[in-house]
Amino acid sequence: QLVESGGGKVQPGGSLRLSCEIPASTFDHLSVGWVRQAPGKEREEVSCVGKEYGGTRYADSVKGRFTVSIDNAKNTVYLQMNNLKPEDTATYYCAGERSPQCGGPSGTVNLRLYDYWGQGTQVTVAS
After folding, report:
1. Pick from 57, 69, 114, 126: CA 20 to 30 A from residue 47's CA?
2. Which of 34, 96, 21, 37 shows the shortest CA–CA distance to 66?
3. What is the model's pLDDT at position 29?
4. What three-state secondary structure class fits 87?
């Protein structure tokens, strides 16, 4: 139900903006996270934005470089990625949690809380 776009190949220091389009029927009920998986590594959440209050959280590895935002008119969540590094290379997924805030009442980072997943978009950072 979630459709990502915007991936590609970029040089170190470059930028990309990922988009996650969400069906209108579910958009109003989801907090949305961005999760990435690099080859041979486990999935990790890099960011999440809460639906009710718009609260955001970021993994330490991307703080200050990535920004998550919501466009309510377009039912779309964005991940702006700046100053990209080779270690950011991964498949990026958007994921939806049926909760007004990321991680539910406890705010826990737990990928099992996500109810919906997109198909993923590849981001490659290389010279």
Report:
1. 126
2. 34
3. 84
4. helix
| Both tokens assigned to 100 | 């007004």
Contact, 56 vs 48, CB < 8 A? yes
Helix or strand or coil: residue 112? helix
What is the DSSP secondary-structure string of 18-35? Answer: EEEE--HHHHTT-EEEEE
Give the per-residue pLDDT at 27. Answer: 85
Per-block average pLDDT, block size 10, for the chain (127 residues)?
A: 96 98 87 96 96 88 96 94 98 94 86 94 97
DSSP string, 19-80: EEE--HHHHTT-EEEEEEE-TTS--EEEEEE-TTT--EEE-TTTTTTEEEEEEGGGTEEEEE
Rg (CA), the chain: 13
Task: Quote the DSSP letter at residue 11.
Answer: -
DSSP label at residue 118: B
